[in-house]
Design a protein that fits this description.
The chain is α+β, with helices and mostly antiparallel strands and 867 residues long. It is 38% helix and 25% strand. It binds adenosine-5'-triphosphate (ATP) and magnesium ion (MG).
Length: 867
């Protein structure tokens, strides 16, 4: 059998022999092409040549191009898992002519390679041409020995190729193969006829020869290109399928090793039928993810990144079907790299990176997946018609991160549909809510100000002072005494750079204003608050901030700088600040980092920061020229705009950052630094939260008290708590096992009774009874016992737990030809208001109506009789 790696090579060598230059595949994440979500065809990298915007360096080229069709104009995501020849990621083999040869050679060579080199059976091949292209039609007749009745005219849909809504395009000629009648999946439909470009899986397209001669303009018109081009694309996986005589791309050596690995991890053997869908979907998706991440893609919440996230989540969900609850996708990356790393070395080079991102993303998704799946189950169980409402679909999306198409697939599996219109309406409503929220925060420029003075400048003196004398320049007050105040001078820090605003008061003998927030609007400090007493008058005021609170904010801010530096020291220089929040309660720091920061690393980071606290380093603030600060190595925020003059905050010799915030004088004032959490907030971005000063002290005290209490409760000295717990837990486990074996034994006795009382229906022994077991695993064990004791017969066991009905049906092997456990279970379930099904010999079903259990048991003989 020809190996796939050899087949790829043979294609390329064939065209090298015909004077083509081998070029590298371009990345699947397109560079500088916003019209394109992913590279979707071999021609993408040559687009500018076709458009006359770039010169071709050689007149002919050949390659194997990595393609992803999972969004945009070409989207095969939904096909994956349904047929065996559409993938999200696939390789497209192609040969090109840039104003050199044209239709004749393209047709001749394609035929030569397929039939002469690869020896595909000529009588199984078909060629299509565009309805307007009699030239190509004629060439197929004269240049090849194809059966002339196998050349067909087709319309725009199949024989006019376009990359996107605009861009180079033209008529094409496709080569299809007839895989044989047995591949038709629509045999049951009397109106169906197998044909090229038809609806069934019998004929598949192998190779598309595109004759590019137009550009599709923005307004939809076609304008001729200055030169003509040949652009061909052959589906590599499909070629491998036919050359390796397989019935599906998945069964070739390109996929089987991945599928085998999935079986190994899940311990669920692969079956080449519907039961193997999850194996196949995962095998497909892991290839797409590996290549996309190797080429710089990153799961995220929008655009390309969102498509990748969806692909990953869909694969992860299929993993659940195989019982995989822990991250597992990342374990498949090695296999993908082994298979294809030879031709695509980036897979090996980026392997660690790919695995890290996939694993992190899986972990994140797993958390919500569990909760979401439960929610989904609830929704399905409580639905009165077979519809998931738009509201529910949106809740799954918004709260549990289920993409709409995931919900659709899951619903479909249960025979439900999803109200997509309703979903979109909910989406729109949420956007509306966000807009309204924004409106509420009215801009101060639209406020009716009362002016005491025309001065517009307001000076900030808060770096040096916590209190100052000032005048009100203008103010606004509403009916509820809410005020906005602008001062000529202020010690209040306005929220910026992640640091919250100061609070405090503005007062004189006649009036007191309480300030709860300060915002800078176009350089002007606007103080928000309430008039507490008196009346606002045009007289001198004292503005005074809550100094203790400011001090706590400064603790957290200075600690943030220490943390930033320590992170770089411990994790590496790649750590970049992505966001920061500093208030009087705690600090939050977001930064680039691909994997979780381990407990050990966190301990080290905390230790370093606390050491710097004890060193009591001076915090120095200087105003410098930006250039100078940069030269000194001050950390600036990436993408942030700075003026010519910048404020540089240095902490001893340890840290130097550009920063506008308010800080301590010495690090010692922090007191204690304590990390409280580490988490992921987006792919590749982690978040650390921490506390300082008295808050940290209180936190430690709280933990200590909690621990004390546990000790008292367990009646154990503090440091023996763990041992005691271990003992209790293992005792508990033992008890559980004992109870379980008692239960099984007593159920076993019940089974004996049941078997003795079995009735006969159509000469078959039938047991139908209620039983007290509240766990599906045990119920199944009982089912096995019943099967053994019955030897030959049918059993229907019904239990009630948590207000729900579970039904287990077994049919002994000798009877499965005539009686199907799944069907019996389904019929019984209907009576208790549920549904279900399963294998011929064993099936589980559920229902809601416990009042109908008796009735259901009574009807079992009749159900069996009518089968
Ligand atoms: P189909 O009609 O089978 O979807 P297509 O018309 O979309 O194919 P082209 O855009 O002409 O295909 O792409 C060129 C070749 O790439 C096809 O002849 C086919 O062999 C292969 N191909 C296209 N889409 C996929 C896919 N999703 N997975 C694997 N191979 C594909
Ligand atoms: Mg297609």
């Amino acid at each position: 059998m020809l190996k796939s790696n050899e087949i790829r090579r043979q294609f390329i060598d064939f065209f090298i022999e015909k004077k083509h230059k081998e070029v590298k595949s371009s990345p699947v994440i397109p560079i500088n092409d916003p019209t394109l979500l992913f590279t979707n065809a071999g021609m993408n990298q040559f687009k500018n040549i076709f458009l006359g915007k770039a010169e071709a360096e050689f007149p002919r080229a050949v390659n194997s191009q990595k393609c992803i069709r999972a969004g945009g104009k070409h989207n095969d995501l939904e096909e994956v898992g349904k047929d065996g020849y559409h993938h999200t990621f696939f390789e497209m083999l192609g040969n090109w002519s840039f104003g050199d040869y044209y239709k004749k050679e393209a047709i001749k060579w394609a035929w030569e390679l397929l039939t002469d080199v690869w020896k595909l059976p000529k009588d199984k091949l078909y060629a299509t041409v565009h309805k307007s292209d009699s030239e190509a039609f004629g060439l197929w007749k004269t240049e090849t020995d194809i059966d002339p009745t196998h050349i067909e005219y087709h319309g725009d849909k199949d024989n006019f190729w376009e990359m996107a809504t605009t861009g180079p395009c033209g008529p094409c000629s496709e080569i299809h193969i007839d895989r044989g009648e047995e591949f038709c999946n629509l045999k049951d439909d009397p109106n169906h006829k197998c044909k090229v470009n038809g609806d069934c899986h019998r004929f598949i397209e192998l190779w598309n020869l595109v004759f590019i001669q137009y550009n599709r303009e923005e307004d939809g018109t076609l304008s001729p290109l200055p030169q003509k081009f040949v652009d061909t694309g052959a589906g590599f996986e499909r070629i491998v399928q036919v050359l390796q005589h397989k019935d599906s791309n998945y069964h070739t050596d390109l996929f089987m090793p991945i599928i085998d690995k999935i079986s190994e991890i899940s311990k669920i053997p692969y079956e080449a039928n519907d039961n193997g869908t999850s194996h196949r979907v995962i095998a497909d998706h892991i290839r797409a993810l590996s290549f996309a991440l190797a080429d710089g893609g990153m799961p995220s919440n929008e655009g390309r990144g969102y498509v990748l996230r969806r692909i990953l989540r869909r694969a992860a969900r299929h993993g659940r079907i195989l019982g995989l609850k822990q991250p597992f996708l990342y374990l498949l990356v090695d296999t993908v790299a082994e298979l294809m790393g030879n031709h695509y070395p980036e897979l090996n080079e980026k392997k660690t990176h790919i695995k890290m991102i996939i694993k992190a993303e899986e972990e994140r998704f797993n958390l919500t997946l569990d909760k979401g799946l439960n929610k989904f189950k609830e929704i399905i169980e409580n639905a009165s018609n077979k519809l998931v409402s738009g509201k529910d679909a949106f809740m799954l999306y918004d709260t549990y991160g289920f993409p709409l198409d995931l919900t659709k697939v899951m619903a479909e599996e249960k025979g439900f549909s999803v109200d997509e219109k309703g979903f979109n309406e909910e989406m729109e409503k949420q956007k509306q809510r966000a807009r309204e929220h924004a409106k509420f925060e009215m801009k101060s420029e639209n406020v009716d100000w009362i002016e005491f003075s025309k001065t517009v400048n307001s000076e900030f003196v808060g770096y040096e002072k916590s209190r100052c004398e000032c005048r009100i320049i203008k103010y606004f007050i509403d009916d509820d005494n809410n005020v906005r105040i602008v001062l000529d001078k202020t010690p209040f820090y306005a929220e910026s750079g992640g640091q919250v605003a100061d609070t405090g008061k503005i007062f004189n003998d006649e009036c007191e204003l309480e300030i709860s927030d300060v915002q800078k609007e176009e350089g002007i400090f606007i103080h928000f608050g309430k008039l507490k007493s008196g009346e606002i008058v045009d007289k001198p005021y004292i503005a005074e901030i809550d100094f203790e609170r400011r001090k706590n904010i400064a603790r957290n801010h200075t600690a943030t700088h220490l943390l930033h530096k320590a992170l770089k020291e411990v994790l590496g220089e790649h750590v970049q600040q992505k966001g920061s929040l500093v208030n009087n309660e705690h600090l939050r720091f977001d930064f680039t980092q691909f994997k979780q920061v381990s407990k050990r690393e966190l301990d080290i980071i905390e230790k370093i920061v606390n050491r710097k606290v004890r060193e009591c380093l001076p915090v120095k603030v200087e105003i410098k020229k930006l250039e100078e600060a940069r030269k000194e190595g001050a950390t600036a925020l990436f993408g942030e705009k700075y003026g010519d003059e910048v404020r540089v905050v240095s902490i001893g010799d340890y840290s130097k950052e550009l920063c506008g915030g308010t800080h301590l004088n010495y690090t010692g004032e922090i007191g204690l630094f304590k990390i409280t959490s580490e988490s992921s907030i987006a792919a590749g971005i982690r978040r650390i939260e921490a506390i300082t000063g008295e808050k940290a002290e209180e936190y430690v005290k709280l933990m200590e008290n909690e621990f004390d209490e546990i000790g008292r409760f367990l009646n154990t000295p503090q440091f023996a708590v763990m041992e005691k717990l271990r003992k209790l837990i293992s005792e508990n486990k033992e008890l559980h096992l004992k109870i379980r074996s008692f239960r099984l034994k007593s159920a076993g006795n019940t089974i004996d009774t049941m078997v003795n009382r079995a009735i006969e229906v159509n000469g078959v022994k039938v047991v139908a009874a209620k039983i007290n077991i509240n766990n599906p695993g045990e119920l199944r064990q009982i089912g096995d016992q019943l099967r053994n004791k019955l030897k030959s017969g049918i059993g229907v066991l019904i239990t009630e737990a948590g207000g729900k009905v579970s039904i287990l049906t077994i049919v002994t092997k000798d009877l499965t030809a005539n009686y199907h456990a799944g069907k019996i279970a389904g019929k019984v379930a209907e009576i208790v208001g549920g549904r279900g099904g399963g294998r011929p010999d064993m099936a589980m079903a559920g229902g809601k109506d416990i009042s109908k259990i008796k009735e259901a048991i009574k009807q079992v003989p009749e159900i069996i009789e009518n089968l």
